[in-house]
Specification:
Number of strands: 3
Oligomer: single chain
Structural class: mainly alpha
Strand order of the largest sheet: 2-1-3
Largest sheet: 3 strands, antiparallel
Order of helices and strands: HHHHEEHHHHHHHHE
Helix content: 55-70%
């Protein structure tokens, strides 16, 4: 037995060394990324050709004529984007970038670099989890302000469907986007049906799902509430939370791509400069916002987080 144990103890590190995956070199990473880019371009080309083929099928041109991509809404909100909409829009993007960044840090961390504990006592958590939770609260507060002002100002009609016509028009708009023949729209006045459905999903479906699943997964959820935990088990929350984060990430990528591809200067002026003119003002604000978000993402490290977290609680290495 002793000999067997000794043999096992000697052979185990060798097995670990053999099975350990070596980190990719820079050249391997560039090659890997290049293959992904080429594959994405090829897939996009196939999708565009397939979509254009669909438009030639019997009945499809007539469908596109009947449903151009938008419908007449009974509510007519004031054109333009007020200051509160522009600021909450930017803060939503800013917080979402940090939420995704800190969420990935929490998901992949093995040994936290530092811990945070409330001043009045409470469970000690990793400093990344503290940051993730803190940004979550700010994101929810920003969203609450947005929803209240959305309904108070009458701008709710921009993103809340008011007719069943939204669905065939959304299908029409989707097909037009896929063919690269952009649907006629004027975002300063109203969104097309596909945009309306997507914005409605983000604000009223995805955001609440992210919130209720995040609360269930948080360290502050009552651990000994047996009945509550049976009604809403943690695996269900985890099954919701990560896909919702992927949805938000995909939405942001597609949203920004379409903003830049369908009239970048005018679209950026809408949400950053509050004007329907075509100028570089909105682009300058957009670029500044990207720099701020990138700087905040870079700053999400213990050396910078520790003094900030220390204002609200105790920070320690263990």
């Amino acid at each position: 037995m002793v000999a067997a144990d000794a043999s096992a103890s000697v052979s185990t590190p060798q097995v670990a060394d053999i099975t350990r995956t070596a980190p990719r070199t820079l050249a391997q990473r560039v090659r890997y990324l290049s293959l992904w880019v080429i594959g994405a371009i090829a897939a996009a080309g196939v999708i565009v050709l397939a979509a254009r083929g669909v438009t030639t099928l019997p009945g499809v041109p007539e469908f596109l004529d009947r449903h151009p991509g938008e419908y007449e809404s009974p509510a007519h909100p004031e054109p333009g984007f007020p200051g509160w909409a522009r600021w909450t829009h930017f803060l939503n993007f800013f917080f979402m970038v940090l939420i995704v960044r800190t969420g990935l840090l929490v998901r992949h961390q093995q040994k936290p670099p530092a811990f945070f504990a409330p001043k009045r006592g409470g469970k000690k958590v990793s400093i990344y989890l503290w940051l993730h939770t803190s940004i979550d609260l700010l994101w929810l507060l920003n969203g609450l302000v947005f929803v209240v002002l959305l309904f108070a100002s009458g701008h709710w009609a921009r993103i809340v469907p008011t007719s069943w016509e939204v669905f065939p028009n959304a299908a029409s708009a989707m097909l037009q986007y896929l063919t690269l023949d952009w649907p006629t729209e004027n975002g300063w006045v109203n969104y097309n049906s596909l945009q309306q459905i997507m914005y409605f999903m983000v604000v009223f479906i995805a955001a609440p799902l992210a919130a209720i699943s995040g609360v269930r997964m948080s360290e502050w959820w009552p651990k000994h509430a047996d009945r509550l935990n049976r009604i809403y088990p943690a695996p269900v929350a985890r099954a919701i939370h990560f896909p919702v984060m992927l949805f938000f990430t995909l939405f942001v990528v597609v949203h920004v791509t379409l903003v830049l591809a369908t009239g970048a200067l005018r679209n950026l002026n809408h949400m950053f400069a509050g004007t329907d003119a075509v100028s570089w003002t909105g682009f300058a604000w957009f670029a500044g916002g990207l720099l701020v978000a990138a700087a905040a993402t870079w700053a999400a490290r213990p050396l910078i987080l520790a003094p900030i977290a220390g204002v609200f609680g105790r920070v320690s290495e263990r």
